[in-house]
Amino acid sequence: MQDQMKGVEYLRTLSYIDMERLGVHGWSFGGFMTISLMTNYPDVFKVGVAGGPVIDWKWYEVMYGERYMGTPETNPEGYAKISLINKAKDLKGKLQIITGYNDNTVVPQHCLSFLDACIKAGTQPDFFAYPGEEHNMRGHASVHLHERITQYFEDYLKSNI
Questions:
Q1: Is 141 helix (H, G, I), strand (E, B) or coil?
Q2: Active-site residues: which are they?
Q3: CB neighbours of residue 147 within 10 Å
Q4: I need a labelling partner for 23 at 20 to 30 A (CA). Which of 97, 141, 152, 154 fits?
Q5: DSSP codes joined into one string, 7-42
Q6: Are 80 and 58 in contact (CB under 8 A)?
Q7: Closest CA to 27 of 158, 149, 154
């Protein structure tokens, strides 16, 4: 996130950037980053779209997460620190979370656990699931996905929410 915030610092220096209307989008790790930025910097990012986001790294692929973090048993503090479950209460802007319902890379449990935490915290993300789709959508679903992402930014960054 520090790298992303360095980019935001640069954007602040540009006269044609409306800092009141910054959005962020990412998929997979980028989805994790989107939610991380929106919950850690809730007054900076007004709109986000997080696709296939990793919410809790203990549920992600062993070969990726454990390569960098060790196991959840050997590094419980590290896993707890980067889990987005406890960040649901910090969401302020408009966030759409998208998943492929047959995603076996970032299983839908990630999104559903974050939604459950948002319900408990009283925050209001939007959610969309693609039935039958995996982590990397192709064909008509991919076209629909990109139209949906574009429309979300059109709806919430161009308006005065």
A1: helix
A2: 28, 103, 135
A3: 10
A4: 141
A5: HHHHHHT-TT--TTSEEEEEETHHHHHHHHHHHHST
A6: no
A7: 149
* Distance separating alpha carbons of residues 10 and 17, to the nearest angstrom: 10
Model-wide pTM > 0.85 = yes
The DSSP call for residue 131 is T
Structure tokens at 4: 């992303």
CB 74 within 8 A of CB 111: no
β-bridge partners, 8: none
pLDDT tens digit sequence for 97-132: 999 999 999 999 999 999 999 999 999 999 999 999
Backbone angles phi and psi of 93, in degrees to 5: -80, -170
